[in-house]
Write a structure and sequence with these properties.
By secondary structure, this protein is an alpha/beta fold. It has helices spanning 6-11, 59-65, 101-118, 144-152, 163-167, 186-199, 211-214, 237-260, 274-283, and strands at 31-37, 41-47, 69-77, 81-86, 123-129, 132-139, 175-180, 202-209, 222-225, 228-234, 264-269.
């Protein structure tokens, strides 16, 4: 796969990715911090207390009211962002030259990296793929997005990825974005994601769904499990009806599981442009 991400990055210029809640105190950045101080963006006044920094006093207000107030503000902090990519065999679908789940996942990862980086946030990637694991720690330096794009361009999906275990490598003081089709041992993934959420991590799930998965083709044919070649299934009209109902229920369950963790959740079909998908994730809205 050789991808040209230029049009995608051009389409995302000016897009920013605000944190969904205040972040833990960290180096100065673009996001509202949990730490309250006297520098940064003004929020309110508070009566002066012994031990407060006299430099925080609002002298004009003191002169008008004869009462001492300090100005409080929300400090601004960086939000390191990890993008975790599921490169298991099921992501390499369809494999007939159409837009596969893996290709779309890589494009979404590059787009989200660019948006986070443009906000001054460190951004890194943890990608599980056919030949192992790619780990690029979050960085802010110039060229980071280009390095991520170039690295992802060399990878291919395949095998069975240990997605749940990979999540335990992510620090809780970050934003963690999981780009996956939510197949495989999703229960284990949710379990470990709940540990991250409990620790304070900001979670996002980008659920990649192939257009071909939403409606099976007409006719009778045999389908092979990409992650277990010994498993074959034969389809028919009855199977198609039952499949559609079960797949819809599965997607609803996945959505509810992530939202129960307080995570953002966005379902993206392979017939959706990557830039449109990235904008939906950043805005916390459904893809329309």
């Amino acid at each position: 796969m050789s991808a040209d991400y230029g049009p995608l990055l051009d389409a995302l210029r000016g897009v920013r990715w605000p944190a969904r809640r205040a972040v833990a105190a960290a180096a100065s950045g673009a996001h509202r911090s949990r730490q309250r101080g006297t520098a940064g963006e003004f929020t309110e006044y508070r009566l002066y207390r012994q031990g407060d920094d006299p430099r925080a006093l609002d002298w004009k207000l003191l002169a008008r009211s004869d009462r001492a107030f300090v100005r409080l503000s929300d400090d601004r902090a960086l939000l390191p962002t990890w993008i975790v990519l599921d490169g298991s065999a099921s992501m390499d679908f369809p494999a007939d030259g159409a837009m596969s789940k893996w290709r779309l996942a890589c494009a979404v990862a590059v787009g989200l990296s660019a948006v986070a980086h443009a906000s001054g946030d460190p951004v890194g990637v943890l990608a599980l793929h056919a030949d192992g694991v790619l780990r690029m720690p979050p960085r802010t330096r110039r060229g980071t997005v280009r390095e991520i794009a170039r690295s992802l361009d060399t990878l291919r999906a395949g095998g069975t990825s240990a997605l749940a275990s990979a999540l335990m490598q992510i620090p809780v003081t970050t934003r963690c974005v999981l780009v996956t089709d939510c197949l495989g041992d999703h229960a284990a993934t949710i379990k470990n994601a709940s540990v991250l959420a409990a620790g304070g991590a900001m979670l996002e799930c980008v659920h990649i769904v192939a257009r071909e998965e939403l409606a099976l083709p007409e006719g009778i044919f045999r389908a092979q499990d990409p992650e277990d070649p010994s498993v074959w299934r034969v389809t028919s009209t009855d199977v198609r009806t039952g499949y559609a109902m079960q797949f819809e229920a599965f997607r609803a369950q996945v959505r509810d599981q992530w939202r129960a963790l307080g995570a953002g959740y966005t379902e993206v079909s392979t017939d959706v442009a990557a830039a449109r998908a990235v904008r939906a994730v950043v805005a916390g809205l459904a893809v329309t």
